[in-house]
Design brief:
The structure holds two protein chains of two kinds.
Chain A lengths: L5 E10 L2 E11 L4 E6 L5 H8 L7 E6 L2 E2 L5 H5 L3 E4 L11 H8 L8 H11 L1 H5 L10 H13 L5 E5 L7 H18 L2 E6 L2 H7 L2 E6 L2 E7 H6 L1 H8 L5
Parallel strand pairs in A: 3-8, 3-9, 6-7, 7-8
Antiparallel strand pairs in A: 1-2, 1-4, 4-5, 9-10
Chain B lengths: L3 E4 L2 E4 H22 L2 E5 L5 E5 L1 H23 L2 H9 L4 H33 L13 H23 L3 H5 L1 H52 L8 H18 L3 H20 L7 H21 L1 H4 L5 E2 L18 H4 L7 H27 L1 H11 L1 H6 L4 H27 L1 E2 L6 H14 L4 H17 L6 H5 L9 H15 L31
Helix pairs in contact in B: 1-2, 2-4, 4-5, 7-13, 7-16, 7-17, 7-18, 8-9, 8-10, 8-16, 9-16, 13-14, 13-16, 14-16, 17-18
Classes of the chains: A alpha/beta, B mainly alpha.
InterPro entries (chain A): AAA+_ATPase, ABC_branched_ATPase_LivF/BraG, ABC_transporter-like_ATP-bd, ABC_transporter-like_CS, BCAA_Transport_ATP-bd_LivF, P-loop_NTPase
Keywords (chain A): Amino-acid transport, ATP-binding, Nucleotide-binding, Transport
Pfam families (chain A): ABC_tran
């Protein structure tokens, strides 16, 4: 078996004295969509931010493409072709859509700007219509598209998505999840998806992990997890759309 | 179109406006008839007698009639079309300019009309001192003011009919005006009188415009609240003063050197505050400003302490000094010696320095580092996760902002010939910051307008002699500067909470330049 693209081993993260991640093991293989589901406060977003080095893992190893990135500064991790669409989208509200996308391409020194713009506009045609509009005036769904498009502008090998369905209408969620599936199929992009919307996320993902209170309690293929009664009881029943 | 005029696609009923104005005049006559039309004065035997002042009354009523008429025609009558203009895609600068034209037009017109009125009325009233202080006669003063009033009205009309294309010419037109300003001042006020205008208004305002533009890089673009900007101004000023006096180096060598030294101090300040934002950053930068000042006060051997440094060499025109000697500028060019040559030279010098600041800012905004500054202002975490080195980004902003502060500082000490720590107190930092914030963070035009209003407003207070005729001879407008400064800040913040020009122009466009003004598009619409 080949080495995974991203491998997280025994990672512990603290906020001051409070422990948020109590030793997490997780792998993302090349060309895979992996999802992490869990309740609010389980530590999902903390894990995602820990991969990016803020906050830093106090113990454990995060190995990406064979090199340990757990001690690297955030901006250098981004330069290793890991891109992130963070929780709450965090687009630049007063800058135009175009400028937001340019910021995404900054680490490539704008080398393939036109090509990459075409690629994200094919994926999200709505963004092209909004190109000169300020980011803050976009709708929630458009902002999410922009956050993903901005991340894609850096030509990542691994895309980290933190709750892309947060606060969006079901149709928009479907559009965004379809786009993620497309990217994975056509370009072989590896995706690590943190989600509350367990049903959609597990259906989309090849493999999934369940996190409870900073510990991974279950893992398996997306289909397996969907059928597990504990998962159904905790995350799906009553929550399905 | 006998009775109607077409303004901006909607007709205005002139007849109605005239009727309304006359009615307002009648009410004003009733209200002011007693208060202004009659005056009690003491005669020789100390008895109070009533004096009738028909001229003063006529002036006040006239202002109200004219003002009401203008408001009817240009503002209220246009209400629907005015709304239409707002709804059409117009840049923030254009909207701002329209409002500014209106405001300035109204103020200029009213001030001119009031002054004419009081001068005319004053001529008939012995106890009302009319004082054309100079040699100008009453007639020519009134003529100038009538022209000013007319200019005000034209400005109002012009502002209302401003188009997007004309707004694009504002920058070049503004630079043209600044370049011609000394000539206008000389033509307008003569050799002697123009000195005050070029020095107190031109140079003084331009120094603050330059400082505002420099601080704008740090506060407006990078979003780092800096309350100690005056420290870099001081570093520049003392660098020039000390190096010029000790080593006799010329202004042209020391100007870049002062800039580099200031940039160096900018980086020194930058390092400890890299992790700070908002309030905490503000406090540390405030402390930094005070540290620099306290060092200048207490290290007497180095800086002369409170006594400051005097006899700082003046800048030369490529080696030609501006003095009365045979080697001086005037003698070399066969002119009669006058201090005004140096003032004009200094004016163009600070104009060039300020324009350099603006040019660099505009270019930087289009470059990756400038875009990173703005992204940093918006969201630091997002910036870092996009691979931006926030440390370097912040340090370049601090260094560049400080460098322009240093340029301005060395210009300041060369212009004054004397500097002391008194010139670099916290209130200076506050004023520069006020210019940036009131102008609208990140907006170059906004800084200019705010600097003209705040600094120019300070200076103009000295000139408003006619106010004495309203409030009495003991009234000194200059004493109310602080009050008016504060009040105008409050008014601007209520009127435009994000500064005078709050709309940001994007720096990147896809193919053609087609902006859809963001604040007019409904969220999730279309």
């Amino acid at each position: 078996m080949t080495e995974p693209l991203l491998s997280i081993r025994g990672v512990k993260t603290y906020y001051g004295k409070i422990i948020a991640l109590k030793g997490v093991d997780l792998d993302v293989n090349e060309g895979e969509i992996v999802t992490l589901i869990g309740a609010n406060g389980a530590g999902k977003s903390t894990l995602m931010m820990t991969i990016f080095g803020s906050p830093r893992a106090r113990e454990g190893k995060i190995v990406y493409q064979g090199s340990d990135i757990s001690r690297m500064p955030t901006h250098e991790i981004a330069r290793m072709r890991i891109a992130q669409s963070p929780e709450g989208r965090r687009i630049f509200p007063r800058m135009s859509v175009m400028e937001n996308l340019q910021m995404g391409a900054a680490i490539n020194d704008f080398a393939h700007m036109d090509e990459d713009l075409k690629r994200v506009f094919d994926l999200f045609p709505r963004l092209k219509e909004r190109i000169n509009q300020r980011g803050g005036t976009l709708s929630g769904g458009e902002q999410q598209m922009l956050a993903i498009a901005r991340a894609l502008m850096s030509r990542p090998k691994l895309l980290l998505l933190d709750e892309p369905s947060l606060g969006l209408a079901p149709l928009v969620v479907k559009l965004i999840f379809d786009a993620i599936r497309d990217l994975n199929r056509t370009e072989g992009l590896s995706v690590f998806l943190v989600e509350q919307n367990a049903f959609h996320a597990l259906k989309l993902a090849h493999r999934g992990y369940v996190m409870v209170n900073g510990v991974i309690t279950m893992s398996g293929s997306g289909k397996e997890l969907l059928e597990r009664p504990e998962v159904r009881a905790a995350y799906l029943e009553g929550g399905r759309h | 179109m006998a009775n109607e005029t077409q303004t901006g696609g909607r007709s205005v009923d002139i007849g109605h406006a005239a009727k309304d104005a006359l009615l307002a005049g009648l009410i004003a006559l009733g209200l002011f008839g007693v208060f202004i039309g009659l005056q009690t004065v003491q005669d020789i035997s100390n008895r109070l007698v009533l004096k009738v002042r028909p001229e003063a009354l006529a002036v006040i009523v006239g202002i109200i009639v004219v003002g009401r008429f203008l408001l009817n025609v240009f503002v209220w009558g246009r209400e629907p079309s005015h709304k239409a203009a707002v709804a059409s895609p117009s840049g923030g600068l254009l909207g701002m300019f329209k409002r500014l034209c209106f405001l300035v037009g109204v103020v200029v017109t009213l001030v001119a009309v009031v002054d004419i009125g009081f001068r005319l009325a004053g001529g008939a009233l012995p106890n009302m001192p009319i004082s054309p202080p100079g040699t100008m006669g009453l007639g020519s003063i009134i003529l100038i003011e009538a022209v000013a009033a007319l200019f005000g009205v034209v400005l109002i009309a012009f502002g209302q009919n401003m188009t997007e294309r004309a707004a694009a010419l504002l920058g070049p037109a503004g630079i043209g005006f600044l370049a011609a300003f000394p000539i206008i001042a000389i033509l307008g006020a003569g050799w002697g009188g123009s000195l005050k205008w070029i020095d107190n208004f031109g140079i003084q305002i331009l120094i603050y415009v330059m400082l505002g533009w420099g601080l704008n890089i740090v506060v407006g673009l990078a979003g780092l609240l800096d309350l100690g900007y005056v420290a870099f101004y001081a570093v520049g000023a003392y660098s020039y003063a000390l190096l010029a006096k000790e080593f006799g180096l010329s202004f042209w060598i020391l100007l870049p050197l002062a800039g580099i030294l200031s940039a160096f101090w900018g980086i020194i300040l930058g390092f400890p505050v890299l992790r700070l934002r908002g309030d905490y950053l503000a406090i540390v930068t405030l402390a930094f400003g005070e540290i620099i000042r306290m060092v200048l006060v207490n290290w007497v051997d180095f800086s002369g302490g409170y006594a400051g440094i005097s006899g700082i060499p003046r800048p030369t025109l490529f080696g030609i000094p501006f003095n009365a000697t045979d080697e001086g500028f005037a003698a070399r060019f066969g002119l009669e010696f006058s201090p005004i040559y140096r003032t004009i030279f200094l004016y163009y010098l600070i104009l060039c320095l300020a324009l350099l600041t603006a040019f660099v800012t505009v270019r930087m905004r289009r470059m990756p580092v400038g875009r990173a500054w703005e992204a940093l202002r918006e969201d630091e975490i997002a910036c870092r996760s996009l691979g931006i080195n926030t440390t370097n980004t912040k340090l370049t902003a601090f260094a560049l902002g400080a460098m322009f502060g240093g340029f301005a500082g060395s210009f300041f000490s060369a212009r004054q010939g004397f500097i002391s720590p008194e010139s670099f107190t916290f209130i200076e930092s506050a004023q520069i910051l006020a210019i940036v914030v009131l102008g609208g963070m990140g907006s170059l035009y906004g800084v200019v307008i705010a600097a003209v209003v705040l600094v120019g407003g300070f200076e103009i207070m000295r000139e408003l002699d006619f106010l004495k005729q309203i409030f009495g001879n003991d009234f000194d407008p200059a004493l109310y500067r602080g009050l008016i400064f504060g009040a105008s800040m409050v008014v601007i913040m209520l009127w435009k909470p994000r500064g005078l020009i709050s709309t940001r122009t994007p720096t990147a466009f896809l193919k053609e330049r087609k902006t859809v003004s963001g604040d007019l598009v409904k969220e999730g619409h279309g």
